Amino acid sequence: MPIMNNQKHRWKPSVTVAALVEREGRFLVVEEETSVGLRFNQPAGHLDEGESLVAACVREALEETGCHVTPEALVGIYQWTVPAGDITYLRFAFACRLDQIETGRQLDDGIVAAHWLTLEELRANQARHRSPLVLQCVEDWLSGRRLPLDTVRHYEFP
Description:
Layout: E1 3-4, E2 7-8, E3 14-23, E4 26-34, E5 37-41, E6 44-46, H1 53-65, E7 67-81, E8 88-101, E9 111-117, H2 119-124, H3 133-142, E10 147-148
Parallel strand pairs: 3-8
Antiparallel strand pairs: 1-2, 3-4, 3-6, 4-5, 4-9, 7-8, 7-10
């Protein structure tokens, strides 16, 4: 391990979840403010302490889009390191059923809008994706990747 300032540096990935929601051939994405401008992403975010991955997915989808969703399957687990950066993301992407849209809900800070984009629109706007995981997750979903939800197990300590 590299030594930094005479202390061991502990590398740790940033664990995130993403909700893949499809409706009539369109995919739910958010347009969000980033340090490099407006970018598209799935409703996604960081796992909170003590939270299960499935619960985090449900929470992030609601907070970022106003959509109530139910995760039905795990599409995949993705590891991506930001180029020229020191952040590695470990993303758990879930296929979700849309249950309800809460119109008028205040969205998370930094979220400009929620959009429903076709695969063609996603491909055409690839330069504006937050990461290469955005399109990869959709393509994996379209190819039929589905792992049982119980592939991810959350254990509570008594």
